[in-house]
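re the bet — no i am not wrong, look at it urself. input seq straight from the record:
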Amino acid sequence: MTTSAEDRTLLLLRHGEAVADPMMRDRDRPLTDRGRAQARAVGTWLREHGLGCDLVLCSTTLRTRQTCEAIAAAGECEAEVRHDDRIPGADAHGLLDVIRDADESAQVVLVIGHNPTLPSTVSMLADGAGAEDAHEDELGAHAGEDHGQAGDG
């Protein structure tokens, strides 16, 4: 039996703020202190709102792995974590493929990834076609918070 979309809660999260160092390989950029604090805040929020994740699908970049670790340390620590090398370079369709491959028994799935893929995926899921202007805003750990950092990270 396949789990329907109505039976599953999907959480899409961009990693915390990362070091912006043009001399580093993109996949090796760590979180800043602020990024670690953002990730801990997400873990606390999930715990306080009773959103225990069954499965975390996490990009393989350093900053997403560190985000995942900080979320777990703040209280969301019982989920199975799968690091998936398809996430860093995925477009919205590719990310949806990763999500479709998730264990059907996982009722709450957290995806930790990158812009512009995450807003594109949200847009696609929200109206079925995606909206170009959804790619213009960067989302942080708190809606409406300006992190003052450009890039797709």
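see?? The radius of gyration is 15 Å. told u. also The first helix runs from residue 33 to 48. so pay up
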